[in-house]
Each structure stands twice: as C-alpha cells, then as structure tokens.
Amino acid sequence: MKAFVLAAVVCLPFLTPSRLSAQKITILYSNATFTGTALFVAKDAGLCKQKGLELELVLGGGSAPTVGAVLGGYAQFIQVSASSIVNAAMQGGPVVIVAKVMGPPPYKLVGGISVKRVGDLKGKKIGVNRFGGAPDFLLRHVLAKNRLDAQKDLAILQTGDPAARLVSLFSGALDAAMLLVPEEKVAVEKGYPVIIDFAALGLPYVNIVFGAYKKFLEENPALVKTFLGCYWEGVKKAKADPEFTKKALARWTRTSDSSLLDYTYKSWRADYAPESLKVESKELDLLLESAPKLGTRRDTSQFLDTRYLP
C-alpha cells in the first residue's frame, strides 16, 4: 500500500493539466480583425492548453449570428460587440457579458474624396458590417447628435468586413465607410478623409467583449475562471512580445504586409489593449440610454456578470 501511495506521489508532477487530455472549448469571434489580438496570442502560445483547456476558435458571420450560436449551445464563449449582447438580453436571451476585450471603439468613419464633413453625408451611402453591430450603433448615435436622421437623410448599408468596405469605398459604391485598423490607414494614405474618429470622442462605451450563456456560467464556474485567466495571460504576452503577436495577427487576419502588421500591433498596444478585463457599469451607459426603457431603473445585472474574472 505504501509503495502504491509513493508511486502516485512521484507521478503527480506528470499529471498536470498540460499533460492530460485538454478539454476543448469553442470560442466564436465575430470578425477576423485586430480586435482578436489577445485571443489569437492565447491560442498560438498554448496558454490555455497549459491549464487544461484546448481553444477552438471559430470565425462567425458578424455579431448577431455569433450571439445566436452561443444561445444555441454551439460555443461556450463569444467575442462580439457589447451592443449585440445587450440587444439579445433585452429580447429575453439568457446571455451576459463576462469580460472586456477592447474598450474604446476603434472605428473611423472615412469619407470618399468629396465627403469631408458630417454635413456632407446627407443623401449619401455609408457602409457598416451588419445592422445592430457596434459600428452601426455608434454611427447612428453620432449622426443623431449631428441632427441627421439615419432613416431619412442617408442610407446605411450592410457591406461585410472592413476589407470589403474599403474596396467599396475605393470603387465609389460607398460614399463613406466605417473602417478599422489597419484599413483606415490604407484609406488615409490614399487621400481619403477621416470624418469621425470614434475613439477620440470619449464615449461611455465598451466595444468588444466576451459573452456566455448564463446556464453555462452557473454550471461551469471553474472552467470559466480558467479560460478568463489564460486569456488575461494572452493580453499580457501580446503586450510584451510584439514579434510573436504580429505572427499571430498575420495568421489569423491573413495579413502578410509587414508594415500593416507593425501599424496594427502598435495601434492595439498603444490605444486599444485592455488594462483590465472588468467591464464597468458606466461603460454600458450609452447602450442603455439608447435602448427601450428597462422598467423603472437601468439595472446592468441582466447584461453583466464579472464574478469569474482573474
């Protein structure tokens, strides 16, 4: 018996999660852009596998269908715009925000050569990814502040990912487009004007988040904590290791231009990398102010669950 116990103790160092069969979890991310920087690093560096989790990253088709996938049980976590999760929760969907991925909205409204100011947008066509996503929500909010009716004064069109919007802008199919890093850099270098820099507006808004099904969170608290812990390690590694991070970005965003990768990494590191995974209630203020009345008070508990953060 003593020999058996001794053998078991000797073997313990070899039975760590990294040496056992890892548990696979699926994370759907809405777009293959730099918003997934830390997630891509966590996957490629094996940071979650070291803790017994195998990440399967699956590209969704925009925020709305990605939220639908987690509600249907096809994924454990989703990386999407906060607006998509709030919209789903308001319609009765049992999904909540569990962590911040990116705070400031990294979008710029870039106009065609002849569209230089917000006032020039009247009667024009503007491209976003999908209705209800973060770019669409923010655009409509700022247009309203500038007394432009998105329904009557102009046309907002669903035109796919940032690269597709850039092509449509260059071809003249769009008069303006909501662009991300690094597509906005490409447009500006060709002489296209930035009409609105949304990050510079200082809006009370959290942009990209992790969401999950409420029942899954309640039934798997240890797994959720483990995932968010290794994701946070991914954030720290991405900040500290630019060369590894640029290789991950090249792989997952399918970008081979070294100058664009360098610009993308520096932009993420300087302006958009989270200092904390915690989403503050005030970062949902803009979404809630624009939403239908939530009874007699705005209670963020139906949208936000931060109990699992590292």
Task: Describe the overall structure.
With 310 residues, the chain is α/β, with parallel strands linked by helices. It has two domains: 20-104 and 205-302, 3-Layer(aba) Sandwich (D-Maltodextrin-Binding Protein, domain 2), CATH 3.40.190.10; 108-201, 3-Layer(aba) Sandwich (D-Maltodextrin-Binding Protein, domain 2). 40% of the residues lie in helices and 17% in strands. It has helices spanning 2-11, 37-44, 63-71, 82-90, 134-145, 162-171, 183-189, 214-219, 221-240, 242-253, 258-272, 285-289; strands at 23-29, 53-59, 77-81, 95-102, 108-111, 125-128, 155-158, 176-179, 194-197, 208-213. Strand 1 (23-29), helix 2 and strand 2 (53-59) form a beta-alpha-beta unit. The protein starts with a helix and ends in a 21-residue tail after the last helix.
Quick overview of this protein structure:
By secondary structure, this protein is an alpha/beta fold.
Shape: globular
CATH architecture of the largest domain: 3-Layer(aba) Sandwich
Q: β content, as a range? A: 15-25%
Residue ranges: pLDDT <50 for 5 or more in a row?
A: 1-19
Return the CATH topology of the largest domain: D-Maltodextrin-Binding Protein, domain 2
| Strand-pairing-aware structural class | alpha/beta
Distance between the termini: 40 Å
Features:
disordered N terminus; 5-stranded mixed beta sheet; D-Maltodextrin-Binding Protein, domain 2; 310 residues; alpha/beta; 40% helix; 10 strands
